[in-house]
């Protein structure tokens, strides 16, 4: 079967570059167009020399005309830049927005943390996200929404030569900090093990998470090396409403239930290029206090059973960013502090891969009816 064609906007940035790195060896997708802004007319190899397979592609302008005509369009653009452009893209194409414009379901949350035009919420691209439970107590998953398993009657052909599929045509890629925090804590929320107004998340974040442009949150090496610094503190980080939205879904409340949770969230830039280590804590409920530690750990085993990219580490083994670098894997762990009645959950991910581009390709695989793991690795590059 002919490969699906892909156009990537924002191809010279970190997120766009990671998407290109993964897709360059994907057996079912072929990158045929790359787009940028100030780099128009130059060769991609000038900006992404680590991807020799695509080095000779000429960078086009980021316009609907350049992006349309492809099976897949990936928008690796800053927030506020993809919403208006997306409205001009082919309805038949599958579009993945790696920015924030289509993540939030509630307009008030967007107004409070972003401002500007509010765009329609797209299918959320986190396959492992829990959406509550069915009548038999089984977890509902976002995976079925992405793949179209929940709406198989809407099948339409991609083209005359490609098969009928039911997968999402508009996918919103989650935030990287959101991914780490959600994967760490959603089992506790789904099983009512924590008090929802006591959640605290502290994240160590690599500098690539701040983007490629030079700014105070993306410092010169002389200022960043041998130093760690918090940023977007005091409840101002824009990923907060998205995390609360996810936790509300995990509790089976829908996005409207986000107000049932509060989150004290502090990210800290640390001197590494990639990676996020999330340490998330909350007070234990009476239900959790009556359970043994093994029973609490079993909630994480249950939540991630059959989830190919999430590994619950053996008891006592802590997640480390080095062990997931370059992969779509997430390593999670949980510990209980009985003295302070606190649950501690941890997750390590590669912010550019699992947190952004890898998760997008995972969602594309599902949307196109491919094996979820195609083109993606669960193996890190340690040491």
From TrEMBL:
The record, for PANTHER family, names: N-ACETYL-GAMMA-GLUTAMYL-PHOSPHATE REDUCTASE, CHLOROPLASTIC-RELATED, N-ACETYL-GAMMA-GLUTAMYL-PHOSPHATE REDUCTASE, CHLOROPLASTIC-RELATED-RELATED
What positions does the domain Semialdehyde dehydrogenase NAD-binding occupy?
A: 5-137
Protein's job: Catalyzes the NADPH-dependent reduction of N-acetyl-5-glutamyl phosphate to yield N-acetyl-L-glutamate 5-semialdehyde.
Cite the SMART domains for this sequence: Semialdhyde_dh
Active-site positions on this chain? 176
Instruction: Kindly report, in one word, the top-level EC class recorded for this enzyme.
Output: oxidoreductase
Gene Ontology cellular-component terms for this entry are: cytoplasm
Q: What is a single molecular function from GO for this protein?
A: NADP+ binding
* CDD domains named in the record: AGPR_1_actinobacAGPR_like, AGPR_1_C
The cross-references to PROSITE patterns, in alphabetical order and at most eight, read: ARGC
Pathway field: Amino-acid biosynthesis; L-arginine biosynthesis; N(2)-acetyl-L-ornithine from L-glutamate: step 3/4
Decide whether keyword Cytoplasm is in the record.
yes
Query: Which residue ranges does UniProt annotate as crossing the membrane?
Result: none
Q: Does the keyword Flavoprotein apply?
A: no
Query: What superkingdom does the record give?
Result: Bacteria
Q: Which UniProt keywords apply?
A: Amino-acid biosynthesis, Arginine biosynthesis, Cytoplasm, NADP, Oxidoreductase
Name a biological process GO annotation. L-arginine biosynthetic process
State its Enzyme Commission number(s): 1.2.1.38
Please state what the protein is called.
N-acetyl-gamma-glutamyl-phosphate reductase
Q: Which SUPFAM superfamilies match?
A: Glyceraldehyde-3-phosphate dehydrogenase-like, C-terminal domain, NAD(P)-binding Rossmann-fold domains
Entry's family note? Belongs to the NAGSA dehydrogenase family. Type 1 subfamily.
Pfam (any one): Semialdhyde_dh
Enzymatic reactions: N-acetyl-L-glutamate 5-semialdehyde + phosphate + NADP(+) = N-acetyl-L-glutamyl 5-phosphate + NADPH + H(+)
Q: Where is it located?
A: Cytoplasm
């Amino acid at each position: 079967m002919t490969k699906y064609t892909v156009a990537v906007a924002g191809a010279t940035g970190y997120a766009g570059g990671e998407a290109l790195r993964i897709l360059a060896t994907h057996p079912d997708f072929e990158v045929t167009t790359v787009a940028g802004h100030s780099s128009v007319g130059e060769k991609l190899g000038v900006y992404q020399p680590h991807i020799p397979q695509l080095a000779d592609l000429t960078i086009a302008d980021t316009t609907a005309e350049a992006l349309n005509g492809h099976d897949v369009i990936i928008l690796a653009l800053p927030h506020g830049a993809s919403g208006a452009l997306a409205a001009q893209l082919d309805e038949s194409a599958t579009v993945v927005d790696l920015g924030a414009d289509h993540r939030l379901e509630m307009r008030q949350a967007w107004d409070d943390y972003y401002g500007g035009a509010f765009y329609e919420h797209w299918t959320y691209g986190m396959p492992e996200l829990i959406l509550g439970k069915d009548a038999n107590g089984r977890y509902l998953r976002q995976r079925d929404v992405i793949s179209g398993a929940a709406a198989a009657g809407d099948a339409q052909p991609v083209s005359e030569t490609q098969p009928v599929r039911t997968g999402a045509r508009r996918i919103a890629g989650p935030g990287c900090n959101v991914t780490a925090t959600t994967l760490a804590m959603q089992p506790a929320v789904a099983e009512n093990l924590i008090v929802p107004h006591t959640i605290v998340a502290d994240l160590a974040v690599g500098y690539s998470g701040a983007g490629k442009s030079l700014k105070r949150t993306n410092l010169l090496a002389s200022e960043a090396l041998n130093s760690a610094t918090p940023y977007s503190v005091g409840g101002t980080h824009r990923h907060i409403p998205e995390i609360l939205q996810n936790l509300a879904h995990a509790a089976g409340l829908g996005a409207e239930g986000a107000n049932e949770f509060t989150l004290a969230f502090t990210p800290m830039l640390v001197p590494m290029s990639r990676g996020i280590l999330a340490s998330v804590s909350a007070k234990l409920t009476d239900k959790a206090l009556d359970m043994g530690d093994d029973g609490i750990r079993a909630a994480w085993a249950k939540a991630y059973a059959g989830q190919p990219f999430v590994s619950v580490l053996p008891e006592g083994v802590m997640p480390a960013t080095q062990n997931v670098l370059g992969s779509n894997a997430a390593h999670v762990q949980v510990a209980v502090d009985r003295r302070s009645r606190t649950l501690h959950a941890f997750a390590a991910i590669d912010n550019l891969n699992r947190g952004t581009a890898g998760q997008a390709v995972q969602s594309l695989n599902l949307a196109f009816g491919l094996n979820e793991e195609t083109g993606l690795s669960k193996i890190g590059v340690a040491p």
